[in-house]
Every structure is written in structure tokens, then in C-alpha cells.
Specification:
A two-stranded antiparallel ribbon has the order 1-2. 61% of the residues lie in helices and 2% in strands. By secondary structure, it is an all-alpha fold.
Length: 295
């Protein structure tokens, strides 16, 4: 999609395409792309399937709540979708038999999708522990706001983080850098570019919300950091101190909440890159890499 193309070109043949590629390659207008290994694509597909299952479950819950709202039925408890709430739903009697059938079907749909989500969670946990990037996944979880699902999603989408020479390149790849339209002596920075992998960007933004609170090592975070090298734990603590202070500083300046979270996510990408640099991975089998090259 980034190959230069003239607006008036209406003839496309293999010979013309080959000549265009050779000229672009000679003038260094082409940039290589990262091709993941089959194993990495498989884990990424499983991670995306788990996310799709969660979206389907939420959609089914929204439909059930809309049905109850239309019939002016409200739950008086505090925790929705708890065991007490589910028992309350099974005891409901709607005004019309047809609506009762709809209620029962939606309850069965929710139960099926809950079991589907549990199956995918178990499979994802099993396959991630056998994945070659599991040391990176485990190390990244030393950061606050990065649990197993976020770590797996980010690493599966980005692949080998060693291919980025500088964290700014990773930030640009994720589309977390501001757009710019400058001319002469004027410099204008706009919204983020939103280029690159949108799912990895969204996962980092979700994790950035946890830095609203003061820096602290919770019991759960301490358990995730057990067994990790001291250098990785130090990087995670340094990130927490900096990002928590930056959130408070930008908040006092009156910055918009979404802008603050985006800035935190951008720096989270840099610390993720720094932690991945500390992990030594087993080199990939060259035969597998060659098998991915098209003929």
C-alpha cells in the first residue's frame, strides 16, 4: 500500500509492476515488512478469538438488559452478573409467554458464551506457556496495568520487539505519536496518527488507566514479578513512578483525561520495549523462516 503510484497510470501489467518495483527498490522507496512465524500467528489468532468471545458475551448481556428495561424490571442488588444476580434472572416471570421464551433463550446464550470464554481462556493459558515469546509475556507483566491477557495481546500483535532500534519507532508503529502539520516557523501538532496495529494500541490504552492511582506494588503485582530478574523489576518500578507522577502533573494542568491516558500509553510502549530488550530469546529455526518467503 505504500508503493508510489502515479495518478494517471491506468495500465497494469506484470512487466510494468516488475519495473516499478525495481526502480522503487533502487531509490530506497520500499521498506521491508515483518512476517510473523506460523506459531506466532496461531497464538495471535487464539488471542483475537478470546477477545471476540468476550465481545459476544457483552452483546448478549446488553440484549438481556434491554429486554428487562423495556418491561420496567430492575435489579435491586449491587453486583450485576454475580451468582445472586443470575439466580434472580432465572426466577423472573415476564408478562407474556413469548417474552418468557425470549428471556430463557437469552439466558442460555449467556451461559453458552460464558463456557466458551472459559474454554478459550484455558487454551490461551496452555498455549502461551509453550510459546517461544512466553519469557517476554512473563516479563512484561511486571508492569502495572499489564496482566496476562494484555501482555499476550500486545506481544502477539507486535511480534519481535527487537526489530525496533529505538522506542520512538515502536511508538510510531503503534500510532501513538501526534500528527504534525508544520510550515515555515509554525508548528502544529494534532491528534495521534492511529497508524499501525490498532489492537495493540487499544490494549496499552486500557492498561494506562491503572496509573491514575499513586505508585504502589500490590500483592497481585508482586506475585507477577516473582522469579523475574532484578533489572526487569527495576524498569517496571521506574515506569510506575514516572507514569503516576506524569498523570498527576498533567491532570493538575487541566489536560483532558483521554489525552493524559494516551500519553501514558505511549510511554508504556517505551518501557515495554526496554523490558523486552532484557529478555534473551531462543533463535528461530532458519528453515521455518525460509518457508515463509514466497516463491
Amino acid at each position: 500500500s505504500l508503493i508510489p503510484k502515479k495518478p494517471g497510470e491506468r495500465i497494469k501489467t506484470d512487466r510494468r509492476d516488475a519495473l516499478k518495483l525495481v526502480r522503487s527498490l533502487k531509490s530506497e522507496d520500499l521498506t521491508p515488512i515483518y512476517v510473523p512465524e506460523p506459531e506466532d500467528e496461531a497464538v495471535r489468532d487464539l488471542s483475537r478469538a478470546r477477545e471476540a468471545a468476550m465481545k459476544d458475551l457483552k452483546e448478549a448481556k446488553y440484549q438481556l438488559k434491554a429486554l428487562l428495561l423495556r418491561n420496567n424490571i430492575r435489579y435491586e442488588g449491587t453486583a450485576n452478573w454475580s451468582k445472586k444476580h443470575l439466580r434472580w434472572l432465572t426466577e423472573l416471570i415476564l408478562p407474556h409467554p413469548a417474552q418468557q421464551i425470549v428471556l430463557q433463550e437469552q439466558l442460555q446464550t449467556i451461559e453458552e458464551r460464558i463456557r466458551r470464554l472459559e474454554r478459550l481462556d484455558n487454551e490461551l493459558t496452555h498455549h502461551v506457556h509453550q510459546w517461544r515469546y512466553y519469557p517476554v509475556v512473563k516479563a512484561v507483566q511486571a508492569m502495572r496495568g499489564v496482566r496476562l491477557l494484555v501482555a499476550v495481546g500486545v506481544v502477539a500483535e507486535l511480534g519481535d520487539l527487537h526489530r525496533f532500534d529505538h522506542p520512538r519507532k515502536l511508538m510510531a508503529y503503534l500510532g501513538l505519536v501526534p500528527s504534525e502539520q508544520s510550515s515555515g516557523g509554525k508548528r502544529h501538532l494534532g491528534a495521534i496518527t492511529k497508524a499501525g496495529n490498532g489492537r495493540a494500541r487499544r490494549l496499552l490504552i486500557e492498561g494506562a488507566h491503572s496509573y491514575r492511582y499513586p505508585a504502589n506494588v500490590s500483592t497481585e503485582l508482586q506475585l507477577r514479578q516473582e522469579g523475574l530478574p532484578k533489572d526487569i523489576v527495576d524498569i517496571a518500578w521506574k515506569a510506575q513512578l514516572r507514569l503516576c507522577k506524569r498523570y498527576q502533573r498533567m491532570s493538575k494542568k487541566g489536560k483532558h483525561y483521554n489525552l493524559i491516558i494516551t500519553a501514558i500509553a505511549r510511554e508504556m510502549a517505551a518501557y515495554t520495549w526496554a523490558i523486552a530488550k532484557e529478555v534473551v530469546l531462543t533463535p528461530v529455526n532458519p528453515k521455518l523462516r525460509l518457508s515463509r518467503v514466497p516463491a
